[in-house]
Amino acid sequence: MVSRVIPVQPFDLIIFGGTGDLARRKILPALFRRYCAGQMEGEARVIGAARAEMTDAEYRSFAREAIAEFGADAACDAAHLDAFLSLLSYITLDARGDAGWATLAAALEGSERIRAFYFSVGPGLFGDLAARIEAHGLAAPGTRVVVEKPFGRDLASARSLNAALARHFDETQIYRIDHYLGKETVQNLMAIRFGNTLFEPLWNSQYVDHIQITVAEAGGVGSRGEYYDKSGAMRDMMQNHLMQLLCLTAMEPPAKYDPDAVRDEKLKVIRALDPGQPGDIVRGQYEAAGKGAGSQPGYLEEVGNLESTTESFVALKARIGNWRWAGTPFYLRTGKRLRARASEIAIVFKDAPHSIFGADAGQHRNILTIRLQPNEGIELGVTIKEPGPGGMRLVDVPLDMTFSEALGPEAEDVPDAYERLIMDVIRGDQTLFMRGDEVEAAWEWTDPIIEAWESAGTAPCAYATGSSGPDDALALIHRDGRRWREIRT
Protein backbone atom coordinates (compact mmCIF):
# COMPACT_ATOMS: atom_id res chain seq x y z
CA MET A 1 0.00 0.00 0.00
CA VAL A 2 1.28 3.46 -0.90
CA SER A 3 -0.33 6.27 1.07
CA ARG A 4 -0.91 9.64 -0.50
CA VAL A 5 0.09 12.79 1.32
CA ILE A 6 -1.68 15.86 -0.01
CA PRO A 7 -0.08 19.10 1.23
CA VAL A 8 -2.38 21.67 2.81
CA GLN A 9 -2.32 25.34 1.92
CA PRO A 10 -0.02 27.67 3.90
CA PHE A 11 -1.52 28.58 7.25
CA ASP A 12 -1.05 30.43 10.52
CA LEU A 13 -1.92 28.33 13.57
CA ILE A 14 -2.11 30.19 16.87
CA ILE A 15 -2.10 27.89 19.90
CA PHE A 16 -3.58 29.57 22.97
CA GLY A 17 -2.21 27.57 25.87
CA GLY A 18 0.86 26.90 23.75
CA THR A 19 2.95 25.89 26.78
CA GLY A 20 0.32 23.56 28.23
CA ASP A 21 0.25 19.79 28.53
CA LEU A 22 -1.92 19.24 25.44
CA ALA A 23 0.41 21.34 23.27
CA ARG A 24 3.43 19.46 24.62
CA ARG A 25 2.01 15.94 24.35
CA LYS A 26 -0.19 16.15 21.27
CA ILE A 27 -0.34 19.34 19.20
CA LEU A 28 3.34 20.12 18.63
CA PRO A 29 4.36 16.46 18.02
CA ALA A 30 1.40 16.06 15.64
CA LEU A 31 2.44 19.13 13.64
CA PHE A 32 6.02 17.88 13.49
CA ARG A 33 4.93 14.49 12.12
CA ARG A 34 2.82 16.19 9.45
CA TYR A 35 5.80 18.36 8.55
CA CYS A 36 7.98 15.27 8.20
CA ALA A 37 5.32 13.66 6.01
CA GLY A 38 5.47 16.64 3.65
CA GLN A 39 1.96 17.83 4.39
CA MET A 40 2.90 21.24 5.78
CA GLU A 41 4.36 23.79 3.41
CA GLY A 42 7.41 25.75 4.51
CA GLU A 43 5.33 28.94 4.60
CA ALA A 44 3.23 27.69 7.51
CA ARG A 45 3.62 29.43 10.86
CA VAL A 46 2.88 28.13 14.35
CA ILE A 47 2.54 30.74 17.09
CA GLY A 48 2.41 29.66 20.71
CA ALA A 49 0.58 32.05 23.03
CA ALA A 50 0.34 31.86 26.81
CA ARG A 51 0.87 33.94 29.96
CA ALA A 52 4.36 32.58 30.64
CA GLU A 53 7.27 34.85 29.74
CA MET A 54 9.23 33.11 27.00
CA THR A 55 11.33 34.05 23.97
CA ASP A 56 11.04 32.45 20.52
CA ALA A 57 14.24 30.52 21.20
CA GLU A 58 12.95 29.25 24.53
CA TYR A 59 9.68 28.15 22.95
CA ARG A 60 11.54 26.28 20.24
CA SER A 61 13.56 24.57 22.95
CA PHE A 62 10.29 23.67 24.70
CA ALA A 63 8.96 22.21 21.43
CA ARG A 64 12.21 20.31 20.79
CA GLU A 65 11.92 18.59 24.17
CA ALA A 66 8.22 17.81 23.60
CA ILE A 67 8.97 16.25 20.21
CA ALA A 68 11.86 14.24 21.64
CA GLU A 69 9.52 12.79 24.26
CA PHE A 70 6.28 12.36 22.32
CA GLY A 71 7.09 12.57 18.62
CA ALA A 72 10.53 11.05 18.20
CA ASP A 73 9.20 8.15 16.11
CA ALA A 74 8.63 10.48 13.16
CA ALA A 75 10.73 9.59 10.13
CA CYS A 76 12.77 12.79 10.21
CA ASP A 77 16.38 13.76 10.68
CA ALA A 78 17.87 16.59 12.73
CA ALA A 79 17.80 18.96 9.75
CA HIS A 80 14.05 18.47 9.37
CA LEU A 81 13.54 19.12 13.07
CA ASP A 82 15.49 22.37 12.89
CA ALA A 83 13.50 23.42 9.82
CA PHE A 84 10.22 22.69 11.60
CA LEU A 85 11.27 24.57 14.72
CA SER A 86 12.09 27.60 12.59
CA LEU A 87 8.34 27.85 11.83
CA LEU A 88 7.59 28.36 15.53
CA SER A 89 7.39 31.62 17.44
CA TYR A 90 5.94 32.72 20.76
CA ILE A 91 3.93 35.62 22.17
CA THR A 92 3.29 36.30 25.85
CA LEU A 93 -0.43 37.01 26.04
CA ASP A 94 -3.22 37.42 28.60
CA ALA A 95 -6.52 35.79 27.59
CA ARG A 96 -8.51 38.03 29.95
CA GLY A 97 -6.55 41.25 29.45
CA ASP A 98 -5.04 43.26 26.62
CA ALA A 99 -1.41 42.30 27.14
CA GLY A 100 0.13 40.73 24.05
CA TRP A 101 -2.81 41.16 21.69
CA ALA A 102 -1.29 44.07 19.80
CA THR A 103 1.84 42.00 19.28
CA LEU A 104 -0.21 39.10 17.94
CA ALA A 105 -2.15 41.44 15.63
CA ALA A 106 1.11 42.85 14.28
CA ALA A 107 2.47 39.34 13.66
CA LEU A 108 -0.62 38.40 11.65
CA GLU A 109 -1.06 41.70 9.81
CA GLY A 110 -1.01 41.39 6.05
CA SER A 111 -1.04 37.58 6.08
CA GLU A 112 -3.42 36.01 3.57
CA ARG A 113 -2.80 32.48 4.82
CA ILE A 114 -5.51 30.31 6.31
CA ARG A 115 -5.80 31.31 9.96
CA ALA A 116 -6.71 28.92 12.77
CA PHE A 117 -6.93 29.61 16.50
CA TYR A 118 -6.53 26.57 18.72
CA PHE A 119 -8.12 27.06 22.17
CA SER A 120 -5.93 24.62 24.12
CA VAL A 121 -7.25 26.10 27.37
CA GLY A 122 -10.07 25.52 29.84
CA PRO A 123 -13.62 26.25 28.59
CA GLY A 124 -13.84 29.21 30.99
CA LEU A 125 -11.54 31.12 28.64
CA PHE A 126 -13.36 30.36 25.37
CA GLY A 127 -15.58 33.44 25.52
CA ASP A 128 -12.71 35.77 26.53
CA LEU A 129 -10.49 34.57 23.70
CA ALA A 130 -13.28 34.76 21.12
CA ALA A 131 -14.17 38.32 22.16
CA ARG A 132 -10.56 39.54 21.98
CA ILE A 133 -9.94 37.89 18.62
CA GLU A 134 -12.85 39.87 17.22
CA ALA A 135 -12.02 43.07 19.11
CA HIS A 136 -8.48 43.13 17.72
CA GLY A 137 -9.62 42.39 14.18
CA LEU A 138 -7.89 39.03 13.98
CA ALA A 139 -10.77 37.06 12.47
CA ALA A 140 -11.51 36.83 8.76
CA PRO A 141 -14.39 34.99 7.04
CA GLY A 142 -12.19 31.90 6.57
CA THR A 143 -10.84 31.87 10.12
CA ARG A 144 -11.21 28.61 12.04
CA VAL A 145 -11.48 28.16 15.82
CA VAL A 146 -10.65 24.82 17.46
CA VAL A 147 -12.06 24.10 20.92
CA GLU A 148 -11.25 21.12 23.16
CA LYS A 149 -13.47 19.14 25.47
CA PRO A 150 -14.88 19.35 28.05
CA PHE A 151 -17.47 21.37 26.16
CA GLY A 152 -19.56 22.16 29.18
CA ARG A 153 -20.43 19.98 32.16
CA ASP A 154 -24.19 20.01 31.54
CA LEU A 155 -26.73 21.30 29.05
CA ALA A 156 -26.85 24.82 30.49
CA SER A 157 -23.07 25.32 30.39
CA ALA A 158 -22.83 23.81 26.89
CA ARG A 159 -25.49 26.24 25.66
CA SER A 160 -23.61 29.09 27.32
CA LEU A 161 -20.34 28.11 25.60
CA ASN A 162 -22.08 27.74 22.24
CA ALA A 163 -23.65 31.16 22.66
CA ALA A 164 -20.30 32.73 23.64
CA LEU A 165 -18.64 31.38 20.50
CA ALA A 166 -21.64 32.18 18.29
CA ARG A 167 -21.41 35.86 19.24
CA HIS A 168 -18.11 36.09 17.39
CA PHE A 169 -17.96 33.18 14.94
CA ASP A 170 -20.23 31.37 12.54
CA GLU A 171 -20.92 27.68 13.20
CA THR A 172 -18.99 26.82 10.03
CA GLN A 173 -15.87 28.29 11.67
CA ILE A 174 -16.08 26.33 14.93
CA TYR A 175 -14.31 22.96 15.24
CA ARG A 176 -15.21 21.07 18.43
CA ILE A 177 -12.56 18.41 18.60
CA ASP A 178 -13.12 14.83 19.78
CA HIS A 179 -9.93 12.89 19.12
CA TYR A 180 -11.83 9.58 18.97
CA LEU A 181 -13.36 10.66 15.67
CA GLY A 182 -9.87 11.07 14.22
CA LYS A 183 -8.98 7.42 14.73
CA GLU A 184 -8.49 5.49 11.51
CA THR A 185 -10.76 2.63 12.55
CA VAL A 186 -13.61 4.95 13.53
CA GLN A 187 -13.62 6.33 10.01
CA ASN A 188 -13.35 2.80 8.65
CA LEU A 189 -16.61 2.05 10.43
CA MET A 190 -18.34 4.33 7.92
CA ALA A 191 -16.37 2.79 5.05
CA ILE A 192 -17.41 -0.72 6.12
CA ARG A 193 -21.06 0.24 6.40
CA PHE A 194 -21.53 2.51 3.43
CA GLY A 195 -18.79 1.33 1.06
CA ASN A 196 -19.85 -2.33 0.95
CA THR A 197 -23.14 -4.01 0.09
CA LEU A 198 -22.28 -6.91 2.40
CA PHE A 199 -23.14 -5.39 5.78
CA GLU A 200 -25.68 -2.58 5.40
CA PRO A 201 -28.64 -4.89 4.53
CA LEU A 202 -27.96 -6.75 7.80
CA TRP A 203 -27.32 -3.63 9.90
CA ASN A 204 -30.65 -3.56 11.73
CA SER A 205 -32.71 -5.17 14.47
CA GLN A 206 -33.82 -8.02 12.24
CA TYR A 207 -30.30 -9.46 12.13
CA VAL A 208 -28.37 -7.78 14.97
CA ASP A 209 -28.92 -9.21 18.46
CA HIS A 210 -27.09 -6.44 20.31
CA ILE A 211 -24.12 -4.09 20.09
CA GLN A 212 -21.37 -3.59 22.67
CA ILE A 213 -19.14 -0.50 22.83
CA THR A 214 -16.23 -0.68 25.26
CA VAL A 215 -13.59 1.93 26.07
CA ALA A 216 -11.43 0.46 28.85
CA GLU A 217 -8.36 2.06 30.42
CA ALA A 218 -5.78 0.22 32.51
CA GLY A 219 -4.52 3.36 34.29
CA GLY A 220 -6.16 5.39 37.03
CA VAL A 221 -6.94 9.09 37.09
CA GLY A 222 -3.30 9.96 37.84
CA SER A 223 -2.51 13.67 37.77
CA ARG A 224 -6.04 14.49 36.52
CA GLY A 225 -7.58 13.69 39.90
CA GLU A 226 -8.82 17.19 40.73
CA TYR A 227 -10.46 17.63 37.31
CA TYR A 228 -11.75 14.08 37.09
CA ASP A 229 -13.45 14.15 40.48
CA LYS A 230 -15.60 17.04 39.24
CA SER A 231 -16.59 15.23 36.06
CA GLY A 232 -16.49 11.44 36.33
CA ALA A 233 -16.70 8.79 33.64
CA MET A 234 -20.15 9.90 32.47
CA ARG A 235 -19.08 13.45 31.66
CA ASP A 236 -15.49 12.66 30.71
CA MET A 237 -16.11 9.71 28.37
CA MET A 238 -19.69 8.55 27.96
CA GLN A 239 -21.30 11.86 27.00
CA ASN A 240 -18.81 12.52 24.20
CA HIS A 241 -16.50 9.69 23.07
CA LEU A 242 -18.87 6.74 23.49
CA MET A 243 -21.85 8.78 22.35
CA GLN A 244 -20.02 9.55 19.12
CA LEU A 245 -19.18 5.88 18.58
CA LEU A 246 -22.82 5.00 19.21
CA CYS A 247 -23.94 7.56 16.64
CA LEU A 248 -21.57 6.34 13.92
CA THR A 249 -22.64 2.75 14.56
CA ALA A 250 -26.37 3.41 14.57
CA MET A 251 -26.90 6.29 12.15
CA GLU A 252 -28.71 6.09 8.82
CA PRO A 253 -26.70 6.42 5.59
CA PRO A 254 -26.13 10.12 4.86
CA ALA A 255 -26.98 11.34 1.38
CA LYS A 256 -23.31 12.12 0.81
CA TYR A 257 -20.02 12.27 2.70
CA ASP A 258 -20.48 15.88 3.67
CA PRO A 259 -19.95 17.48 7.10
CA ASP A 260 -23.54 18.53 7.70
CA ALA A 261 -25.05 15.44 6.07
CA VAL A 262 -23.05 13.17 8.39
CA ARG A 263 -23.72 15.26 11.48
CA ASP A 264 -27.44 15.51 10.68
CA GLU A 265 -27.67 11.71 10.83
CA LYS A 266 -25.68 11.52 14.08
CA LEU A 267 -27.99 14.09 15.63
CA LYS A 268 -31.04 12.00 14.70
CA VAL A 269 -29.58 9.05 16.64
CA ILE A 270 -29.11 11.11 19.82
CA ARG A 271 -32.63 12.51 19.57
CA ALA A 272 -34.03 8.99 19.09
CA LEU A 273 -32.43 7.65 22.29
CA ASP A 274 -34.97 6.55 24.87
CA PRO A 275 -34.48 8.18 28.29
CA GLY A 276 -31.98 6.33 30.46
CA GLN A 277 -33.59 4.10 33.10
CA PRO A 278 -32.01 3.83 36.59
CA GLY A 279 -32.03 0.02 36.44
CA ASP A 280 -30.07 0.09 33.17
CA ILE A 281 -27.10 2.08 34.50
CA VAL A 282 -24.23 1.01 36.78
CA ARG A 283 -21.56 3.23 38.33
CA GLY A 284 -18.30 2.10 39.91
CA GLN A 285 -15.12 3.22 41.68
CA TYR A 286 -11.86 1.27 41.60
CA GLU A 287 -10.33 0.03 44.85
CA ALA A 288 -6.71 0.03 45.96
CA ALA A 289 -4.58 -2.89 44.84
CA GLY A 290 -1.48 -4.58 46.21
CA LYS A 291 0.76 -3.74 49.12
CA GLY A 292 4.16 -2.22 49.53
CA ALA A 293 6.19 -0.83 46.62
CA GLY A 294 3.89 -2.26 43.97
CA SER A 295 0.65 -1.02 45.50
CA GLN A 296 -1.82 1.20 43.67
CA PRO A 297 -4.11 3.65 45.46
CA GLY A 298 -7.86 3.42 45.13
CA TYR A 299 -9.92 6.11 43.45
CA LEU A 300 -10.74 7.93 46.70
CA GLU A 301 -7.08 8.12 47.71
CA GLU A 302 -5.93 9.10 44.22
CA VAL A 303 -8.29 12.08 43.98
CA GLY A 304 -7.73 13.03 47.62
CA ASN A 305 -11.43 12.99 48.51
CA LEU A 306 -12.50 10.11 50.73
CA GLU A 307 -16.17 11.19 50.55
CA SER A 308 -16.32 11.32 46.73
CA THR A 309 -19.29 9.73 44.97
CA THR A 310 -17.84 10.37 41.50
CA GLU A 311 -17.72 7.33 39.25
CA SER A 312 -14.58 6.02 37.55
CA PHE A 313 -16.68 3.41 35.69
CA VAL A 314 -20.06 3.49 34.05
CA ALA A 315 -22.00 0.86 32.12
CA LEU A 316 -25.42 1.30 30.62
CA LYS A 317 -27.97 -0.18 28.28
CA ALA A 318 -29.28 2.26 25.68
CA ARG A 319 -32.27 1.87 23.40
CA ILE A 320 -32.84 3.73 20.14
CA GLY A 321 -36.48 4.35 19.36
CA ASN A 322 -36.56 4.10 15.59
CA TRP A 323 -37.47 1.50 12.97
CA ARG A 324 -33.92 0.32 12.34
CA TRP A 325 -33.01 -0.44 15.97
CA ALA A 326 -36.29 -1.12 17.79
CA GLY A 327 -35.65 -4.04 20.15
CA THR A 328 -31.85 -4.09 19.74
CA PRO A 329 -30.03 -2.96 22.89
CA PHE A 330 -26.72 -1.08 22.88
CA TYR A 331 -24.47 -1.88 25.85
CA LEU A 332 -21.87 0.80 26.58
CA ARG A 333 -19.14 0.72 29.23
CA THR A 334 -16.06 2.71 30.08
CA GLY A 335 -13.81 2.85 33.09
CA LYS A 336 -10.37 3.20 34.58
CA ARG A 337 -8.09 0.60 36.20
CA LEU A 338 -9.71 -2.17 34.20
CA ARG A 339 -8.07 -5.36 32.96
CA ALA A 340 -6.42 -3.79 29.91
CA ARG A 341 -6.38 -0.74 27.69
CA ALA A 342 -8.79 -1.66 24.92
CA SER A 343 -11.50 0.01 22.88
CA GLU A 344 -13.83 -1.77 20.50
CA ILE A 345 -17.25 -1.82 18.90
CA ALA A 346 -18.77 -5.31 18.60
CA ILE A 347 -21.81 -5.94 16.42
CA VAL A 348 -23.22 -9.27 17.61
CA PHE A 349 -25.49 -10.83 15.01
CA LYS A 350 -28.35 -13.15 15.88
CA ASP A 351 -28.06 -16.92 15.89
CA ALA A 352 -29.07 -18.79 12.77
CA PRO A 353 -32.86 -19.22 12.95
CA HIS A 354 -32.54 -22.99 12.62
CA SER A 355 -29.53 -25.29 12.96
CA ILE A 356 -29.36 -28.34 10.70
CA PHE A 357 -26.30 -29.70 12.51
CA GLY A 358 -27.87 -30.96 15.71
CA ALA A 359 -27.33 -30.18 19.38
CA ASP A 360 -23.71 -31.37 19.40
CA ALA A 361 -22.72 -28.61 16.99
CA GLY A 362 -23.51 -25.96 19.59
CA GLN A 363 -24.79 -22.43 19.15
CA HIS A 364 -22.75 -20.07 16.99
CA ARG A 365 -23.12 -16.47 15.91
CA ASN A 366 -21.24 -13.96 13.78
CA ILE A 367 -19.56 -11.01 15.49
CA LEU A 368 -18.07 -8.05 13.66
CA THR A 369 -15.49 -6.33 15.87
CA ILE A 370 -13.99 -2.93 15.12
CA ARG A 371 -10.87 -2.50 17.29
CA LEU A 372 -10.03 1.14 18.01
CA GLN A 373 -7.04 0.58 20.30
CA PRO A 374 -4.58 -0.99 20.56
CA ASN A 375 -3.82 -2.86 17.31
CA GLU A 376 -6.41 -1.07 15.21
CA GLY A 377 -8.25 -3.41 12.92
CA ILE A 378 -11.44 -5.24 12.01
CA GLU A 379 -12.35 -8.83 12.79
CA LEU A 380 -15.32 -10.87 11.56
CA GLY A 381 -16.10 -14.08 13.42
CA VAL A 382 -17.52 -16.79 11.18
CA THR A 383 -18.54 -20.40 11.77
CA ILE A 384 -16.76 -23.23 9.95
CA LYS A 385 -16.39 -26.99 10.23
CA GLU A 386 -13.61 -28.11 12.54
CA PRO A 387 -11.01 -29.94 10.42
CA GLY A 388 -10.77 -33.73 10.67
CA PRO A 389 -13.02 -36.76 10.57
CA GLY A 390 -15.66 -37.67 13.09
CA GLY A 391 -18.75 -35.77 12.11
CA MET A 392 -19.83 -32.16 11.68
CA ARG A 393 -18.24 -30.19 14.51
CA LEU A 394 -18.53 -26.42 14.23
CA VAL A 395 -16.02 -23.85 15.48
CA ASP A 396 -15.81 -20.08 15.32
CA VAL A 397 -12.78 -18.54 13.62
CA PRO A 398 -11.86 -14.91 12.94
CA LEU A 399 -11.35 -13.27 9.59
CA ASP A 400 -8.84 -10.76 10.93
CA MET A 401 -7.69 -7.56 9.25
CA THR A 402 -5.15 -6.01 11.56
CA PHE A 403 -4.05 -2.90 9.68
CA SER A 404 -0.35 -3.42 10.23
CA GLU A 405 -0.57 -6.95 8.80
CA ALA A 406 -3.10 -6.45 6.01
CA LEU A 407 -1.88 -3.14 4.63
CA GLY A 408 1.87 -3.47 5.08
CA PRO A 409 4.48 -1.57 7.10
CA GLU A 410 3.07 1.83 6.19
CA ALA A 411 -0.09 1.02 8.14
CA GLU A 412 1.97 1.26 11.31
CA ASP A 413 2.56 4.91 10.44
CA VAL A 414 -1.14 5.77 10.36
CA PRO A 415 -1.38 9.39 11.53
CA ASP A 416 -2.33 10.02 15.12
CA ALA A 417 -5.87 11.35 15.54
CA TYR A 418 -4.59 14.86 16.28
CA GLU A 419 -2.51 14.87 13.11
CA ARG A 420 -5.54 14.11 11.00
CA LEU A 421 -7.88 16.48 12.82
CA ILE A 422 -5.53 19.47 12.75
CA MET A 423 -5.01 19.01 9.02
CA ASP A 424 -8.80 18.76 8.57
CA VAL A 425 -9.12 22.12 10.33
CA ILE A 426 -6.72 23.67 7.84
CA ARG A 427 -8.63 22.09 4.95
CA GLY A 428 -11.91 23.40 6.35
CA ASP A 429 -13.43 19.90 6.65
CA GLN A 430 -15.81 19.67 9.66
CA THR A 431 -16.95 16.07 9.07
CA LEU A 432 -15.06 14.69 12.08
CA PHE A 433 -15.99 17.56 14.42
CA MET A 434 -19.09 17.95 16.57
CA ARG A 435 -21.71 20.54 15.75
CA GLY A 436 -23.23 22.73 18.45
CA ASP A 437 -26.71 21.19 18.34
CA GLU A 438 -25.14 17.72 18.50
CA VAL A 439 -23.28 18.59 21.71
CA GLU A 440 -26.41 20.05 23.29
CA ALA A 441 -28.52 17.02 22.34
CA ALA A 442 -25.97 14.71 24.00
CA TRP A 443 -26.11 16.73 27.21
CA GLU A 444 -29.91 16.79 27.03
CA TRP A 445 -29.90 12.98 27.20
CA THR A 446 -27.11 12.76 29.80
CA ASP A 447 -28.25 15.44 32.27
CA PRO A 448 -31.29 13.58 33.71
CA ILE A 449 -29.09 10.54 34.41
CA ILE A 450 -26.52 12.58 36.31
CA GLU A 451 -29.20 14.56 38.15
CA ALA A 452 -30.82 11.32 39.31
CA TRP A 453 -27.48 10.12 40.73
CA GLU A 454 -26.87 13.40 42.53
CA SER A 455 -30.38 13.42 43.97
CA ALA A 456 -30.04 9.85 45.23
CA GLY A 457 -26.62 10.55 46.77
CA THR A 458 -25.63 6.87 46.58
CA ALA A 459 -22.01 5.81 46.28
CA PRO A 460 -20.76 3.95 43.19
CA CYS A 461 -20.13 0.20 43.43
CA ALA A 462 -16.56 -0.76 44.31
CA TYR A 463 -14.59 -2.88 41.84
CA ALA A 464 -11.15 -4.44 41.93
CA THR A 465 -8.25 -2.93 40.02
CA GLY A 466 -7.51 -5.13 37.01
CA SER A 467 -11.06 -6.47 36.77
CA SER A 468 -13.79 -5.92 34.18
CA GLY A 469 -15.71 -3.58 36.48
CA PRO A 470 -18.32 -4.01 39.23
CA ASP A 471 -20.37 -7.19 39.55
CA ASP A 472 -23.50 -5.11 39.00
CA ALA A 473 -22.23 -4.30 35.49
CA LEU A 474 -21.97 -8.01 34.75
CA ALA A 475 -25.51 -8.51 36.02
CA LEU A 476 -26.73 -5.65 33.80
CA ILE A 477 -26.10 -7.73 30.69
CA HIS A 478 -26.39 -11.23 32.19
CA ARG A 479 -30.04 -10.69 33.10
CA ASP A 480 -30.72 -10.26 29.37
CA GLY A 481 -29.08 -13.62 28.65
CA ARG A 482 -25.96 -12.00 27.21
CA ARG A 483 -22.33 -11.59 28.29
CA TRP A 484 -19.81 -8.79 28.04
CA ARG A 485 -16.94 -9.49 25.70
CA GLU A 486 -13.61 -10.06 27.39
CA ILE A 487 -11.48 -6.95 27.80
CA ARG A 488 -8.18 -7.81 26.15
CA THR A 489 -5.38 -6.14 24.24
Structure overview:
With 489 residues, the protein is an alpha/beta fold. It has 15 helices and 15 strands. The model has no long low-confidence stretch (mean pLDDT 90).
* Helical content class: 25-40%
Please give the order of strands in the largest beta sheet: 14-13-12-11-7-10-9-8-15
Enumerate how many helices there are, as a single number. 15
Q: Based on Cα principal axes, name the global outline.
A: globular
Q: Residue-averaged pLDDT, rounded?
A: 90
Structural class of the secondary structure composition?
Answer: alpha/beta
Multimer state: single chain
Integer-rounded radius of gyration: 24 Å
Strand percentage: 15-25%
**Strand/helix succession:** EHEHHEHEHEHEHEHHHEHEEEEEEHHHEH
The total beta strand count reads: 15
Spans of at least 5 consecutive residues whose pLDDT stays below 50 are none
What is the terminal separation in angstroms? 26 Å
For the biggest sheet, the summary is: 9 strands, mixed
What are the salient characteristics of this protein?
15 strands, nine-stranded mixed sheet, alpha/beta, 19% strand, six-stranded parallel sheet, globular, 15 helices, single chain, 489 residues
Task: Please outline the helices and strands.
Blueprint (H helix, E strand, L loop, with lengths): L10 E6 L4 H16 L8 E6 L5 H15 L7 H8 L2 E5 L8 H8 L5 E6 L6 H10 L8 E4 L7 H12 L7 E3 L7 H11 L13 E9 L8 H4 L3 H19 L8 H14 L8 E6 L12 H5 L9 E6 L11 E6 L6 E8 L17 E7 L3 E9 L8 E9 H4 L10 H11 L8 H21 L4 E3 L7 H8 L11
Helix pairs in contact: 1-2, 1-13, 6-14, 9-10, 9-14, 10-14
